[in-house]
Amino acid sequence: MLAVMPVEQLVTLQQLKYFVEVVNQGSIMGAAAVLYRSQPSLSASMKDLEARLGKELFIRSARGISLTSDGIEFLGYARQVVEQAELLERRFGSGAPSKRQLAVSAQHYAFAVNAFVDMVRDAGSSEYEFTLRETRTHDLIEDVRTMRSELGILYRNDFNRRVVDKLLRDAGLAFHPLFMAKPHVFVGRGNPLAGRSAVTLDDLRPFPRLSFDQGEHNSFHLSEEILSTESAPKSIRVSDRATIFNLMIGLDGYTISTGIVSEDLNGPDIVSVPLRVEERIEIGWIAHASIQLTQQAVGYLDSLRSVVADYGVDLIEGGAEEAGKTGPRRP
Hints:
- By secondary structure, this protein is an alpha/beta fold.
- It has 3 domains: 1-96, Orthogonal Bundle (Arc Repressor Mutant, subunit A), CATH 1.10.10; 99-177 and 283-331, Periplasmic binding protein-like II (D-Maltodextrin-Binding Protein, domain 2, 3-Layer(aba) Sandwich), CATH 3.40.190.10; 183-279, Periplasmic binding protein-like II (D-Maltodextrin-Binding Protein, domain 2, 3-Layer(aba) Sandwich), CATH 3.40.190.
- The chain has 12 helices and 12 strands.
- The strands form 4 sheets. The protein has a 5-stranded mixed sheet, with helices on both faces. It has a 3-stranded antiparallel sheet with strand order 10-7-11.
- A hairpin with a 2-residue loop joins strand 1 (58-61) and strand 2 (64-67).
- The longest helix has 24 residues, at 69-92.
- The two termini are 19 Å apart.
């Protein structure tokens, strides 16, 4: 015979909503302001939640809070319950529509921004709170591990696969392939290489190689560009995509990427030229292996696949349509 949990020990929907908001805001103080609750009462509610579960969900320090491993797992369940409750309220209730939420971390890819724009336009909500972080590879993985972001977008290839897969495995994350791309170089329209049908590595040697700085984790395996071990007489590291585009135009620099660039978002001054190498770039999304994605995350992946398909890139089957099947569905 199943034991029945006493009523006073049941976790409430309100506590789940509070918990999710604390994680979204990154602090009790930030969540209290959004929820119009006092900080002491919200803190007490979270401690009561932990007591009811018999598990510590937060690591509390002078720098703020972060999730424990139990907290990360619990967040996956909590988000599903809150999302389903909001769907019920929208379908059968008379209250105001709920706020859409999603955080995504990505390497510096124009197509990830394109898909984000489409997702926001299609959100169909009068209120939303979305986050897109273009960031370093190690930080991207850490964002998803700690659930600061629900999804991450990054690449792997034969050179970095073993290292990237180990980092993901150690973080409890899974890589889901989206598409395979042939390497291209991005250059300014005024670059002498811009009119070529294709270029070689030797063709690139007179020009500055532009790459994204990876900070203290600046290893070849975490580089955002393939062929990072190839020597270049001129090399410049930058921290953001706008700067790298400016240097392509101002210094005739180049960077190696997927070849997908949006003229609508980035203007007509950056062009893509095929690079004659045997390597291939596998782009994919990462998320917690044991946690089902929210519907908003699945919607973003649908937008991502649609954007990539519009550029004529062949998608890898079993991507976004499998996203909703990952992990537990209910507590």
